[in-house]
């Protein structure tokens, strides 16, 4: 008769888990070897990688890409954009190696730090606290001579008993010299980072009155006022928005005064870092006929305007942009009516606070103004504009644009009388049948680098995890009568949460937007449609991806919650053996295990939505676009990120408590030998090690490895990612 041998189910489970671990370990080593081989093939003799390396980490979904940008080519903080170095204001040249600043200096009792060319620097000495203002006591201009040499100008000393509000009251007094007020306003606004909305409003009113051509005063006062306006434009967008919310008439008045002032400079120009004003005088010309004036702004090495960056051409009939052109405008008008014309270019749109067009990116929207001074209304006046959009072409695609002008009645942008023209050589074209302040409003779509699908090792690892979890759930349910109900319930709930997370990860982590066809050119822009835009960034909404991200968030947090409950339960059973479990223990832990994660996820989504409900892209405050997972914060937004407070912090708290309970159980139960008990003498070291590892896996201790993946070193992060995937597959 054949003999039947009974196998212990625990031994079978251990054998299966060992085989699965060996398979995953082999696959991981194989993938690392292939990756190293590919990187060696993709590396040139100099050791420089020619291809970007893309890594998708198991579970965390972290996506990194090495850049092929020659970062080392640009020096002194310069950045490589669109084939050239964009230098900080203090440097210039092909590689940002030529100094564009005045060194530290002293003048009498005043000390000045490094000052960029074209800007006023504030003294380190400030007014006393008991004075009206705590601003610097003096300013000093760093400028270029006619020979191109950098030199420091004379020091301007301010009055510590003056502030912008006081100057606003004095400006209405016609007997006061405007040059003194203009100089004080310039000194008080030299540090834009300290300006408040009230300061912006007062300063705008002061310089608006100084630029009023109906008041007779020196041209120097008006030039200093333009410097003040340029300094104001360095203030933050938020400050301007709050100032406009209180009184937007102030900005409109200043804009109109700037337009009128642009007609009074003869054939001269005023160039400041954020503003350039150019006049053209026709009073000496008596010929009759149409006239074309072309105003060109050339690209610079930095974002600041410098002397010589503008060109003016008269008696022309067409636009003529080249590779160095950033913006060009052609003004066509009647010579018999026109005595002069003026152009103004603003480096940003902060004075033009729109209620319909909102900006979220840091791409500056330049404003160009054209103004004519004619004897009678000239209905034939028109302008043509070409503009080379400046944005990060590696990360964004131009989605659409609109040709608009500033409507002083609406106090907002309007498209009336303007239409698009055919785009040539990367320039955006516009045509308007009137003259005023124009802009090319642009909207961009971020060119997201969607990661590749899960690789072989990730698919195998997740498949094995899913298989192991299903077998564990079945085993626990079938053998539930041999143990306490609470033990089975906790373990089944833990495995169920982990199983659903794995399934969502495999089938839902990818964003379906990656399959949408996109174009890297602007050939798909509709030039026949000049509709007003509402925002400068466009994102294709995907509510399904948001739901998947929320479910992944919930079940991962639920998995950790159940590991914490499992640890607490094991502590009660092994350490506090003489005390029974609390009444209704299963109901209590169920409410915690399934309810607490739901509350955390609901609060996170609700808070983000309530704070950004007017933002059509509020979903990206919660999740990423590249994958359906929680948003990874920028370096300056870590503290307020949902990833930190709704996942990492709870995970860390649970892990710490699990580690503490794990150590207590190991010391007091598993590895404690009692010579009075015969049973403890028979327990082998191998069995103790297996028991220790089993508890470590159930408690989620292996997730500590995920913190080691936060390193910036790609090679070390890759190694820990595979180790992390390996150990979590065994979970």
From TrEMBL:
Family annotation (CDD domains): 7tmB2_GPR128
Q: Give the membrane topology, semicolon-separated if more than one.
A: Multi-pass membrane protein
- The answer, when asked if Membrane is one of the entry's keywords, is yes
Spell out the subcellular localization from the entry. Membrane
Instruction: Give residue ranges for domain GAIN-B.
Output: 295-448
What positions does the domain G-protein coupled receptors family 1 profile occupy?
Answer: 468-704
What molecular function terms (GO) are annotated for this protein? G protein-coupled receptor activity
All copies of the G-protein coupled receptors family 2 profile domain together span 454-731
Chain coiled-coil ranges: 150-184
> What Gene Ontology terms describe where this protein resides (cellular component)?
membrane
Give the transmembrane ranges.
12-33, 456-475, 487-509, 551-573, 585-609, 643-671, 692-710
- Keyword flag Protein biosynthesis: no
Q: What is its main location?
A: membrane
Q: Outline what the protein does.
A: Orphan receptor.
Could you say which protein family the record assigns here? Belongs to the G-protein coupled receptor 2 family. Adhesion G-protein coupled receptor (ADGR) subfamily.
* PANTHER family in the record: ADHESION G PROTEIN-COUPLED RECEPTOR G7
Record protein name field: Adhesion G-protein coupled receptor G7
Q: Which organism is it from?
A: Diceros bicornis minor
């Amino acid at each position: 008769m054949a003999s039947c041998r009974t196998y212990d189910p625990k031994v079978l489970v251990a054998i299966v888990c060992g085989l699965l671990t060996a398979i995953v370990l082999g696959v991981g080593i194989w993938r690392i070897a292939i990756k190293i081989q590919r990187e060696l093939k993709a590396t040139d003799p100099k050791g420089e990688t020619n291809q970007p390396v893309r890594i998708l980490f198991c579970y965390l979904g972290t996506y990194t890409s090495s850049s092929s940008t020659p970062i080392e080519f640009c020096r002194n903080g310069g950045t490589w954009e669109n084939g050239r170095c964009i230098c900080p204001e203090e440097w210039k040249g092909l590689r940002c190696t030529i100094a564009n600043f005045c060194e530290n200096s002293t003048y009498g009792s005043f000390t000045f730090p490094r000052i960029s060319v074209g800007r006023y620097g504030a003294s380190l000495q400030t007014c006393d606290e008991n004075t009206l203002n705590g601003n610097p006591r003096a300013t000093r201009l760093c400028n270029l001579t006619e020979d191109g040499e950098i030199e420091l100008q004379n020091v301007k000393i301010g009055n510590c008993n003056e502030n912008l509000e006081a100057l606003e009251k004095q400006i209405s007094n016609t007997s006061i010299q405007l040059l003194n007020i203009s100089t004080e306003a310039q000194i008080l606004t030299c540090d834009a980072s300290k300006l408040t909305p009230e300061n912006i409003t007062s300063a705008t009113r002061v310089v608006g009155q100084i630029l009023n051509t109906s008041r007779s005063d020196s041209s120097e006062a008006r030039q200093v006022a333009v410097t003040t306006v340029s300094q104001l434009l360095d203030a933050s967008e938020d400050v301007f928005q709050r100032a406009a919310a209180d009184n937007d008439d102030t900005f409109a008045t200043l804009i109109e005064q700037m337009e009128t002032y642009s007609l009074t400079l003869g054939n001269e120009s005023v160039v400041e870092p954020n503003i350039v004003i150019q006049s053209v005088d026709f009073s000496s010309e008596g010929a009759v006929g149409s006239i074309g004036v072309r105003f060109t702004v050339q690209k610079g090495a930095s974002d600041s305007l410098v002397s010589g960056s503008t060109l003016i051409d008269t008696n022309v009939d067409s636009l003529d942009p080249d590779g160095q052109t950033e913006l060009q405008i052609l003004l066509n008008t009647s010579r018999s009516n026109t005595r002069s014309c003026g152009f103004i270019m603003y480096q940003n749109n902060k004075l033009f606070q729109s209620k319909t067009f909102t900006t979220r990116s840091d791409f500056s929207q330049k404003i160009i103004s054209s103004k004519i001074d004619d004897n009678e209304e000239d209905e034939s006046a028109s302008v043509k504009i070409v503009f080379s959009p400046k944005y990060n072409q590696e990360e964004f695609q131009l989605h659409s644009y609109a040709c608009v002008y500033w409507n002083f009645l609406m106090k907002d942008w309007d498209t009336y009388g303007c239409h698009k023209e055919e785009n040539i050589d990367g320039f955006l074209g516009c045509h308007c049948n009137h003259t005023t302040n124009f802009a090319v409003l642009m909207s961009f779509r971020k060119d997201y680098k969607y990661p590749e699908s899960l690789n072989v090792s990730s698919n195998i690892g997740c498949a094995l995890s899913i298989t192991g979890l299903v077998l564990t759930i079945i085993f626990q349910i079938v053998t539930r009568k041999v143990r306490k109900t609470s033990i089975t319930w906790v373990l089944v709930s833990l495995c169920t949460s982990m199983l659903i997370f794995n399934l969502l990860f495999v089938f839902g982590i990818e964003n379906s937007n990656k399959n949408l066809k996109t174009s890297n050119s602007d050939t798909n822009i509709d030039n026949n449609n000049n509709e007003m835009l509402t925002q400068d960034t466009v994102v294709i909404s995907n509510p399904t991806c948001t739901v998947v991200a929320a479910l992944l968030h919930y079940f991962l947090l639920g998995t950790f919650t159940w590991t914490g409950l499992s640890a607490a339960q094991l502590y009660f059973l092994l350490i506090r053996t003489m005390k029974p479990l609390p009444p209704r223990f299963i109901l209590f832990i169920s409410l915690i295990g399934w309810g607490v994660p739901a509350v955390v996820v609901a609060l996170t989504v609700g808070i983000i939505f309530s704070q950004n409900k007017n933002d059509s892209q509020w979903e990206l405050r919660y999740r990423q676009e590249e994958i359906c997972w929680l948003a990874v914060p920028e370096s300056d937004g870590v503290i307020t990120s949902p990833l930190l407070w709704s996942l990492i912090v709870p995970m860390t708290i649970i892990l710490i408590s699990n580690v503490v309970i794990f150590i207590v159980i190991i010391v007091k139960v598993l590895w404690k030998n009692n010579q009075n008990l015969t049973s403890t003498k028979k327990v082998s070291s191998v069995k103790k090690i297996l028991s220790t590892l089993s508890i470590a896996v159930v408690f989620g201790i292996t997730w500590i490895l995920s913190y080691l993946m936060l390193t910036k070193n790609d090679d070390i992060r890759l190694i820990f990612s595979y180790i992390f995937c390996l150990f979590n597959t065994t979970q």
